[in-house]
Amino acid sequence: MIKTLAKHINGFVKDSILTPCFMIGEVILEMIIPLMMGAIIDNGVEQGDINYICKMGILMVLVAALSLTGGVLGGKYGARASAGFARNLRKAMYENIQTFSFANIDKFSTAGLVTRMTTDVTNIQNAYQMLLRMCFRAPFSLIIAMIMSFLISPRLAGIYLTAMLVLGCILIFMVRLAMKYFNQVFRKYDDLNESVQENVSAIRVVKAFVREDYEKNRFTKAAENVYKMFVKAESIVVLNMPVMQATIYTCILLISWIGAKMVVGSELGTGDLMSMFSYCMNILMSLMMLAMIFVMLSMSIASAERIAEVLNEDSTLKNPEAPVMEVKDGSIRFDHVNFSYTLETSLGTTGKDGGNKEDTGDWVLKDINLDIHSGETIGIIGGTGSAKTSLVNLVSRIYDVSEGSISVGGKDVRSYDMEILRNQVAVVLQKNVLFSGTILENLRWGDKDASEEECIRACKLACADDFIESFPEKYNTYIEQGGTNVSGGQKQRICIARALLKKPKILILDDSTSAVDTATDAKIRKAFREEIPNTTKLIIAQRISSVQDADRIIVMENGEINGFGTHEELLANNEIYRDIYESQTQGGGDFDEQ
């Protein structure tokens, strides 16, 4: 974990070295001041030497100014080092997340990743700054103060040593007790962030179903859990202050009593006693700093582990050593494909009992065999949960097959460079996503170098040009976050146009015309047939009318292919397809109903 995080100090090593150097310099100068104070009392005040007092006073001011400068510079470089470290961690996490496969993303919740990149990184930033400044300053100050105390009076210094040992044991006990609660609190943060994220992203649904009170209660419960954990941890940590104060006052009383007797007996000078009081405060304040460091580190260890977990996560999908850099055509072949979303299955491992995963019956897709020619239009239909989306996700290698193989353009998809493959397989997802920006900026996600004329042509193919031209700003119309200022059907057509700009060899439409009327749906399919005849088109749909004119149609049921053929062949030979057709054309109701 430490090695993983330490790599990201790169670029701020100089600041990380200068910070403790300045802090140590501040401590050394700070420790000289009590000696100078004692000298002024013993050699100046008691001797009535005004010149000595003035000379030592000016020297003390100079030393104090240098000490202050060291502290300021230590704070400056410490802030730069910790802020830079946090920036590098966030950047590295974000870049690694971009390489994740869907299987990796499924492992971490979205809310969990947000917590790691915000709260956890902030904890590490604060801990690193404290580590550079206090972790060097406190022990160094304590050691020097203890040495100086023993040089002045070993008898009085023994009081410090005893108090330090007792206080150290108490603080270690409290920190160990608090750590178990700090380890739990960040998992509660994940639940809190998840509640906020889901509520904000689905606020229209919440209001439509009048579920505000339910969401409030859910958030309150998550916030209450965070509150309870922090209260438990902090109620232990706050005991640090009264224990520290009791120790300080006890030491002051003992030093005052014993020191006064020593001054009366001429065993100790008045100035030396004043110096001992200063060193007493230095030692005990250093212990308090160390206690704060332990608390902060105990909080940050849990955060560091969570951050390292993301940084060390390797994508389950990797490019081969010598990847194929060209997709020949849009032909697709499934060869005895089995697939499960279980991560262990995706990695090709066996169950805990050593048996094959196939025996457990948890396959999402089972023994899929297909041969699709380049340029064909293939319809895919089936009930909810029949694994239609899972089938097409494997083509662009969003997931890897668990068993068997899939070939595109005559090559196994695992032999391609993933960027090359995905550039040739355009997918319009079931849940359409538009980003904040103009319509043109959203369209150019398909091709960043596309001209405005190319964007307009793609929109005409997707039947999006008519409504875009009706906007006052036309193609420069600003799309709000999530596409909230356009309708569902408009959003779908912009997403289809965006996919067409990639000029793919394979186009996958995952129920992507469900929000448009049947006439517009027919126009889009006609444009595909006439304008991109050489592109293989896989169309998932719930409506028979969207797929009946396809070259061939796949009927899915429970992760298996129940039928594969033309519209006429399936009507004649496939009971499921015939039932769907009759239910939709004769008013029989929803085909998912029994």
Distance between the termini: 54 Å
The largest pleated sheet is described as: 6 strands, mixed
**Which stretches are poorly predicted, pLDDT < 50 over at least 5 residues?**
343-360, 588-594
How many strands appear in the DSSP assignment? 12
Q: Tell me the overall shape.
A: elongated
Structural class determined from secondary elements: alpha/beta
Strand residues, percent:
5-15%
Mean pLDDT: 79
Strand order of the largest sheet: 6-9-10-3-11-12
Helix percent band: 55-70%
Radius of gyration based on Cα positions: 35 Å
Provide a count of the helices: 20
How would you explain this protein's 3D organization?
With 594 residues, the protein is α/β, with parallel strands linked by helices. 62% of the residues lie in helices and 10% in strands. It has 20 helices and 12 strands. The chain has helices at residues 2-6, 13-45, 50-99, 102-107, 110-152, 154-201, 203-208, 212-237, 240-264, 270-311, 343-346, 388-393, 418-424, 439-443, 452-461, 465-469, 488-500, 518-531, 567-573, 575-585; strands spanning 332-339, 365-372, 377-382, 403-408, 411-412, 425-428, 437-438, 478-479, 506-510, 536-540, 552-557, 560-565. The strands form 3 sheets. The protein has a 6-stranded mixed sheet. The protein has a 4-stranded antiparallel sheet with strand order 2-1-4-5, with no helix packed on it. Helix 2 runs antiparallel to helix 10 (270-311). The longest helix is centred in the N-terminal third of the chain and has 50 residues, at 50-99. The two termini are 54 Å apart.
